[in-house]
């Protein structure tokens, strides 16, 4: 049985719409676990009243993304999960999303799978995975490098985000859960999927499975829209900071080939120090 784990903190509207999109799936042999990390906007009441079929794990407000996901995975495993999928609450999955993810998962049972992301406002693809050249810290965006005719099936990538991320139990048995100690929020998903790839598990973006996201609503985008000295330090050092230097260092030490590490670290630090003001 597939269990979908969704960590949430407030933003009730997004959670409701995400769960409604999961209810509309063409394939229904899955269950949902929501990790409500101390929401104060009535999320707990909404879940109980409108989605009684959803299993709820309650946090104290200090889990952040990584520990929240791990708590949900642990609960799903106790319920007998045979596959795990992580998902953010600010996504809407297309009706055949689960069907198309499980189609490829059944053909490639050891593979970690992500999905093609669309802009919820325009329906246009905004993220289809990337391949990273560690030597030059250059990201090759598959959406721009693939011909439109190739926007289907599986494409190998270096890592994947946690939005609609399907993980076989064999991966969890081999590498454990997400690194909540060193990567409490950002980069934990990229790290986990990169580590899985380094352990021999194929990592693919599944262009047949699509979900819609809100690109302008990410924490990184909101911080950059309100540029300030405080925001700059939050960007570099805050737990939710998209340019967090500590997180980047841990990710690099775990995943970058040693011969490329000095340049990759220096280049990455420079990008984070100046990038806040350039985007």
From TrEMBL:
Coiled coil: none
Domain named Glycosyltransferase 2-like: residues: 4-114
UniProt entry keywords in alphabetical sequence: Glycosyltransferase, Transferase
SUPFAM superfamilies: Nucleotide-diphospho-sugar transferases
Segments crossing the lipid bilayer: none
Family, per entry: Belongs to the glycosyltransferase 2 family.
Protein name: Glycosyltransferase family 2 protein
